[in-house]
Structure prediction request, 873 residues.
Amino acid sequence: MTAKLTKILIKTAVFLALLSLCTGLLMPKYVESLEEGSFIAEYYREEVPHDVLFVGDCEAYGNFSPAAIWQRSGISSFVRGSAQQLIPQTYWLAAEMLERETPKLLVVNVLAMTEPEQTNEAYNRMTVDGMRLSKYKIGAALASMTEEESLSSYLVPLLRFHSRWSELSSEDFRYLFGKPLVSHSGYLLETGVKPAENVPKGRPLGDYSFSGKNLEYLGRIADLCEEKGVRLLLVKAPTVYPYWYPQWDENVKSFAAERGVDYINLLELSDEIGLDMMTDTYDAGLHLNVSGAEKLSFWFADMLKERYGLEGHAGDPAYEAAWAEKLGRYEAAKAAGYAAQGAAEAAPAGQPAGGKI
Amino acid sequence: MSFASVEFVIFFAALLALWYSFGGRLQRGLLLLANMVFYSSAGLRGLAYMLLTALATYASARAIDGIYGRSDAEIAARKSELSKDERKALKAAAKASAKRVLVLCLILDIGILAAVKYSRMFIKSVPAWLGAPLAVSFYTFMAVAYLVDVYWKRFPAEKDIVRFLTFISFFPQMVQGPISRYGDLSATLFERHGFDAASFRAGLLRALWGYSKKLIIADRLAPLIRTVSGSPAQYRGAYVLILVAAYAVQLYADFTGGIDITIGISRMLGIRVTENFRRPYFSKSTAEYWRRWHITMGSWFRDYVFYPLYTSKAVSGMSRKLREAGHPAAAQRISMWLCTMLVWALTGLWHGASMNFVVWGLGNGLIIMISQELAPAYKAFHARFSGLSGNTAYKAFCCLRTAFLMSALNALDVYPGSGNALAQLLSVFRAGNWSEAFTAAAGSLGLAPHDWAAVALGTAAMLCFSLAERKRGLFDAAAEKPLLSYAVGTALALAVLVFGAYGIGFDASQFIYNQF
Prediction:
């Protein structure tokens, strides 16, 4: 009986190993393109605990630089952001993180309050696929799936990505057994500059209210923070596009007042932060470039100390060691970005940097 | 709940786990419960129709059995006092009573089928409650065959209603058949099944092979079929030939794949289901093709429509009159032609509620009749060229000719309107667009080169499998060797998961015969 059981177990293990090999090969790698797809999973590679956790959509991972915050204040932070991250997903990601650690502050970017439903399955995949199998992942999937999606494809991703067999590239084989870090503690580093000129003002909307589902999940985030003893800070990143309507701002203020949580509209503090949207954005006002992100992060680090009384970990060997490595990568990436940008600017018009004639 | 869905895999895994637990004591009720769960997943309205047919058939069969029983008992009790003629009269009276019950139930069963399936041929806006329930054609035919067999005293009526409902609603057959006979299926359906590893492995391999055919080949070809048949004005001539060939492969992979799954999963439960195909594309004539393709449907029409009709008083009377009028050849031919064409018209109608299918059925009947009429000429031809019938190349030619004829007729299945389908087929003979069509097929007809590669490899695998299967049952042979069956099963499962055309980005179709 034991020998029979052993045989069954071995056969099952071999099948599962082959299945995970196929899954590993066919899952998108998000290393050389669409790097944002890697960010959610990179949280699991963090070693030291964090004082501050950021969650939210691209305005979170594109604007707040934990490396700059550390440099300025010795405060340890991480951004768990993803493209078009919906508020229900933000809740489940936050719940998962607060199960693993207890930061002093949870920062939630509120732009996604204006998104009632997911518009593109790819955004869901980039958020939920990065989560480990748990009740949080299932919750995030169930709360955000589009009509064409199914939970089974999140539990067995091969069911979704199997058709990539015809488009496998060298990237898929190169990162089959391990991927390098792509983000900088969840921050997407961009060095380019594209001024925010002629940003259109928003056209009047018929309805400025947030969806009931988003309000419910934002409420659940507030409940979660209360339960875990973590302070909640709602922020609107200081990027100028898409247009942030005053009515939306009022909605968030009302919620914050009702629940007794903090809310900062960073758009109103752009001058104090020192942002110049002619030089501090790489995509005409949607996201800050590294120059803008560092200005914002320095200001934010100071605010964390002053307003929330957070103290840095400078001198703590574990933190120092972890952050020294991160800073090394960060500075190298920044230098490489600027170098590439310089080469691009030096290249003749219409000729890509490094291109051959 | 489609066979090709995660829900079905979970459903079947749960059933298997319970099936072999508790020494199989749960099996009796469990299978009926599984049937009801599976069937009701397609809607409770359909379940109501199915139960109505099943209960009416069950009660009628019991009533027929009762009539025969009482008559036999009376004859036995009064054996000494009854003359031979009186016994005959009693039997005839019982038969007449049984026939009344039979006819009433047939009117109900076939009436339901006609109402839910064919009312749309005559009424423009059919109310939703009159929509066709899942597998209505299959379970109605099973019920009719059962009832007629009881009337013909082939077996006594089933007394146990749980067993009868389990037979009628047996879920593996509720997608696309086969049309099992009670006498065949009941042999293993109701017994308690212990776990037989080799049989289980053979069933699993067969089911995986079925999934491979359905998901890797049939569903991958679906975009090409849709593209070409969807724009008949644009895609004529050589495109039609590509469509005919692609649909021949798709229909075979889809239907035989579905039957492989049905037979495979039944076998995993220890239940043997009748075979429905025997390498039909290796048939050398249309008549042979129909003895090998959808065997249970063909034999159903033969046993329950053709023979009763051919031997009926009306047809026999007509033949007699012709013979008496001095036309013995016509007497035999006309009754045969009439019955053949009627059966094929009904066969077409069974496939779908449209004139396309009637024309398709009549086309099949016509080809078979012409073949029969030309039989003496064939005989003379083969007597003149005696070595030809054993020649491999000639045999291959006959197979290809039959496959082409059948596939060309199936164009009626994909084009809306029989006139349209025939016009498209005729356009092949005037085609001047061979180069354009084959260039387009390589990339712009809904299939990319990698799709073609998957279809080509899959089709080659099906062909090799069919050739190898002629000598021995490959699934049983593989199942005898646990390690080999594990390796084959793993390879098939991974091939289906990776190369299958399913999920987002694929508009996976239902099984084609599911629509019939």
In short: The interface with chain A takes residues 6, 448, 450-451, 486, 490, 493-494, 497-506 of chain B (CB under 8 Å).
